[in-house]
Design brief:
Blueprint (H helix, E strand, L loop, with lengths): L2 E5 L3 H11 L3 E5 L12 E3 L2 E3 L6 E3 L2 H8 L4 E3 L3 E6 L4 E4 L4 H4 L5 H11 L9 H26 L32 E5 L6 H7 L4 E3 L4 E5 L4 E4 L2 E3 L3 E4 L3 H4 L9 E11 L9 E6 L7 E4 L1 H4 L6 E9 L5 E2 L3 H11 L6 E3 L1 H4 L6 H15 L1
Parallel strand pairs: 1-2, 1-14, 2-10, 7-16, 14-20
Antiparallel strand pairs: 3-4, 5-9, 6-9, 7-8, 11-12, 12-13, 15-18, 15-19, 16-17, 17-18
Helix pairs in contact: 1-11, 2-11, 4-5
Length: about 375
């Protein structure tokens, strides 16, 4: 039987492992003592939480069916704010047209938007796109500082424009203030979130936990790990490729996160329909989330999660021209029957449905 090694037991790895395990001999190597990666549910003071909000949202029917075959999803619509310190006010994000009239400099903003009507924003870099799309005032309020601290960069000109995550053609909304619009969106009914998905998806696989991959020996076609050497006919990678290939072309740049948990003696802190708030100024943190809005946990108190960007950790790939070129060089040394998917494996800013789609497409290719 064909042997497959899957590196990493997050959503991408578990999805690929499940889809292939019915036909092949699949072994999953995971560096932690449990599956789930950044989407695993933990508990603090009785409150379930993930390391940042992990809402499932997509229009992809095949991906929806894949996940809902495992889990019951409670559908709800997510709304978010940004706090703009210079205005001393909270506004919907994505930017909502009626909020502009509440801004102290709304006349200048409306004039800048009028100047841009009918123009197609340039896509040479992240800053240029946003300045062309919304003008300097809104860019300063919502994008400039937030993006710099989010990605740990000095200039937004260093970022490329990824339109999977930028509101292409619709940077300002007029009617729908839901964060994900009319997509299917929600979160598992289960108290432990997605955890049972990870467990169920691996039941027909061999899983080696606490197995940190040191590097892939291309000449020997062997994975060197803390738990010994592994060989397979096919390798599916979902971890960062720089360490996997001995940093041959140098480290890829990531932005990390420090996650602080805060329980407050109040049943609810944020307004009913607001799930999290972005902080777009010079605050050291990027976002505060009230988790019971996502998990539907019932309690007399509430859990807030505060995210601070760091330079350690591999949570968000920094997509600059330099880093994209470096990743392509790594792709050039991928051996035969080696596939790299997911957020880390493809060095792309992807959510849960995106990495499930990666796994589905790869499984179809292999099978």
């Amino acid at each position: 039987m064909v042997k497959i090694l899957v590196l990493g037991a997050g959503f991408a790895g578990c999805s690929a492992a499940f889809l292939l395990s019915k036909r092949y001999d699949v072994t999953v190597l995971e560096c932690c003592g449990f599956p789930g990666g950044g989407c695993r549910t933990y508990f603090y003071g009785g409150h379930p939480y993930t390391l940042g909000p992990r809402i499932f949202f997509t229009k992809d029917d095949e991906v929806i069916k894949f996940l809902t075959d495992f889990l019951d999803i409670r559908q709800f619509y997510n709304k978010t704010w940004s706090y703009v310190a210079e205005d001393k006010d909270f506004y919907f994000y994505p930017i909502y047209k009626s909020d502009i009239l509440r801004m102290p400099d709304h006349e200048s903003i409306l004039s800048q938007l009028d100047e841009r009507k009918g123009r197609t924003p340039r896509v040479s870099d992240f800053e240029t796109y946003w300045l062309d799309a919304i003008g300097p005032n809104l860019y300063s309020k919502f994008v400039n500082n937030y993006s710099k601290k989010m990605w740990g960069i000095e200039s937004n000109k260093n970022l490329t424009v990824n339109f999977d995550w930028v509101n292409k053609g619709n940077p300002i909304r007029e009617d729908d203030i839901r964060l994900y619009g009319d997509m299917f969106q929600g979160y598992p009914v289960n108290w432990d979130g997605y955890n049972s998905f990870f467990d169920k998806s691996l039941k027909d696989c061999k899983v080696v936990f606490d197995c940190k991959v040191e590097f892939y020996d291309v000449e020997e076609k062997t994975l060197r790990t803390k738990r010994g050497d592994f060989k397979a006919d096919i390798v599916i990678n979902t971890i960062s490729v720089d360490s996997l290939f001995n940093h041959t072309y140098g480290p890829l740049k990531y932005s990390g996160r420090k996650f602080l948990k805060i329980v407050l003696p109040s049943k609810q802190v944020l307004p009913d329909d607001i799930v999290w708030i972005h902080y777009a100024g010079d605050e050291p943190f990027t976002r505060i989330t009230e988790f019971k809005k996502i998990t539907n946990h019932q309690s007399k108190d509430t859990l807030l999660g505060l995210e601070l960007p760091t330079f350690d950790g591999q949570h968000y790939p920094v997509r600059s021209v330099v880093e994209e070129y470096r990743f392509k060089k790594y792709q050039g040394i991928f051996p035969q029957n080696f596939y790299s998917i997911g957020r880390l494996g493809s060095f792309s800013y992807k959510g849960i449905p995106d990495v499930i789609r990666d796994a589905i497409d790869l499984a179809k290719k292999i099978i």
